[in-house]
Specification:
This protein has 161 residues and is of the alpha/beta class. The protein has helices at residues 28-41, 83-92, 108-117, 135-139; strands spanning 8-13, 16-21, 49-50, 62-66, 71-78, 97-103, 126-131, 154-158. The protein is 24% helix and 28% strand. The radius of gyration is 15 Å and the shape is globular. The N and C termini lie far apart (36 Å).
């Protein structure tokens, strides 16, 4: 796939289109994981947006906002998420569905980290994803259509369904 050589990737899912920008310091896998999270959750959160500024301390990779309440309903992070950021998100947004993606690494240490960071009263789940190294070839076709095969990627849900 030649798309990883470009600085901008125009990708589509569920009739929507987003231009993903690869910054100099980012690995292409980070960009792909953002696209996978956006595409996978787009049915559940059709207003999901990529890399927008929202009020607060952190900026999400993918977010769906509850415009009435001014709070996120869904928040996704791709790649490295420091423990302090995870603890902040889990405690400040107990009703927000969180998703975190990792590239080709064991999820076990992250499950433990998430369970340690969880406050007692969360009503929304946290999904942890592992994308294998050939995910881009599997999930992005030559026309830029993204379709995540959840049978091929690994997803572990922590907390409420």
């Amino acid at each position: 796939m030649n798309q990883h050589l470009r600085r901008k990737l125009t990708l589509r899912a569920h009739g929507e289109q987003v231009v993903f920008v690869k910054r100099k310091h980012e690995r292409i896998e980070h960009v792909w994981m953002k696209a996978f999270l956006w595409a996978f959750y787009l049915d559940a959160y059709p207003d999901a947006e990529v890399e927008i500024d929202i009020p607060g301390r952190y900026k999400p990779d993918v977010v769906a906002m509850d415009r009435r309440r001014g709070r996120p309903r869904f928040w996704a992070e791709a790649g490295h998420v420091p423990a302090d950021k995870l603890a902040h998100l889990a405690s400040h947004y107990p009703n927000t569905h969180l998703a975190i993606a990792k590239w080709d690494m064991s999820l076990d240490p992250f499950v433990a980290m998430i369970q340690d960071a969880l406050p007692g009263a969360r009503s929304a789940p946290i999904d942890l994803w592992r994308f294998p190294p050939d995910s881009a070839a599997r999930f992005i076709d030559e026309k830029g259509n993204v379709q995540v095969d959840a049978e091929y990627a690994t997803r572990r849900r922590i907390g409420h369904a």
